């Protein structure tokens, strides 16, 4: 049984005649008859009652017609979903690490622009999200990059600074005082956690204690309480730093510069839903680069103005 069998069956049912259906489909009548007989053989039942003027559906035929209409409608909807390039629709399942500060704006813009897309978001650590993309459980994911994997495509979203954070009190007044404090991190597989452990190793320090948490909000609350230290993007804690609850320490650039990329399987079908999403990722990357360049230019201008004033 294939889709053409169902189309032939539906046409015979609509026309009430094998000969009329054959003419409608541009088939020879014997071919239509053979396909209907084959369909009846596969289902183990007759589908039509034969009479002098043609054929009419019997009870089993009416049952099959209901299924046929649903199947053919679903097939049409599927084709439409791929052909409608300007107004895509359908499900889109995306994963992300918790600390992508620009993600709410990106997703909000995408959902407003393409309201027929059913977008769902799940969170996790980089290693776990990569595995889910590879196993076709996610359409794509925002992870710590860059990623080197033969089966992966990646699109850059943003590059930002990581900072070591601690409670703003005397117990954490210097970077050296932070070295023996517990690490408050996401579970193994997190890119930020790996950076922090790598930096401590360069300092000749083995973490005294590692405490795992499931959300960024919990980690920030625990750091603010003085439980330990963590490494997070600076953009995620500006409000806490401004409020005076956290102290930030800068690490060497090799540990502090972090890139977020959007990954997907290289062999996945690039339909309209995903293509439009990638377009939005590309646009946000362009805007982030432009904003960063503008900030850098303003800082250089202020620095130059200060030197001229001093002179």
From TrEMBL:
Domain HTH lysR-type per the UniProt entry, residue ranges: 1-58
Superkingdom of source: Bacteria
Pfam families cross-referenced by the UniProt entry: HTH_1 (PF00126), LysR_substrate (PF03466)
First and last residue of the signal peptide: none
Keywords on record: DNA-binding, Transcription, Transcription regulation
InterPro entries for this protein: LysR_HTH_N (IPR000847), LysR_subst-bd (IPR005119), WH-like_DNA-bd_sf (IPR036388), WH_DNA-bd_sf (IPR036390)
Family in the record: Belongs to the LysR transcriptional regulatory family.
Protein name: LysR family transcriptional regulator
């Amino acid at each position: 049984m294939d889709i053409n069998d169902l189309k032939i069956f539906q046409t015979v049912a609509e026309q009430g005649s094998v000969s009329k259906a054959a003419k409608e489909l541009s088939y020879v009548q014997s071919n239509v008859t053979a396909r209907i007989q084959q369909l009846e053989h596969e289902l183990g039942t007759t589908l039509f009652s034969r009479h002098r003027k043609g054929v009419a559906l019997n009870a089993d035929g009416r049952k099959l017609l209901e299924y046929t209409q649903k199947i053919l409608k679903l097939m049409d909807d599927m084709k439409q979903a791929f052909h409608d390039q300007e107004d895509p629709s359908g499900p889109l399942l995306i994963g992300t690490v918790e600390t992508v500060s620009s993600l709410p704006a990106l997703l909000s813009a995408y959902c407003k622009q393409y309201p027929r897309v059913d977008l769902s978001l799940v969170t996790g650590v980089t290693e776990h999200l990569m595995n889910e993309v590879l196993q076709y459980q996610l359409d794509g994911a925002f992870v710590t990059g860059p990623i080197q994997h033969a089966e992966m495509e990646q699109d850059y979203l943003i590059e930002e600074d990581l900072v070591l954070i601690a409670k703003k009190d005397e117990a954490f007044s210097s970077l050296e005082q932070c070295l023996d404090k517990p690490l408050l991190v996401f579970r193994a597989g997190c890119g930020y956690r790996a950076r922090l452990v790598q930096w401590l190793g360069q300092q000749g320090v083995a973490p005294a204690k590692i405490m795992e948490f499931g959300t960024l909000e919990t980690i920030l609350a625990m750091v603010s309480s003085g439980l330990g230290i963590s490494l997070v993007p600076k953009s995620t804690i500006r409000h806490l730093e401004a409020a005076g609850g956290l102290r930030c320490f800068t690490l060497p650039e090799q540990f502090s510069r972090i890139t977020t990329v959007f990954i997907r399987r290289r062999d996945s079908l690039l339909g309209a839903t995903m293509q439009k999403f990638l377009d939005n990722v590309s646009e946000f990357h362009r805007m982030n680069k432009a904003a960063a360049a503008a900030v850098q230019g303003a800082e250089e201008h202020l620095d130059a103005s200060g030197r001229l004033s001093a002179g």
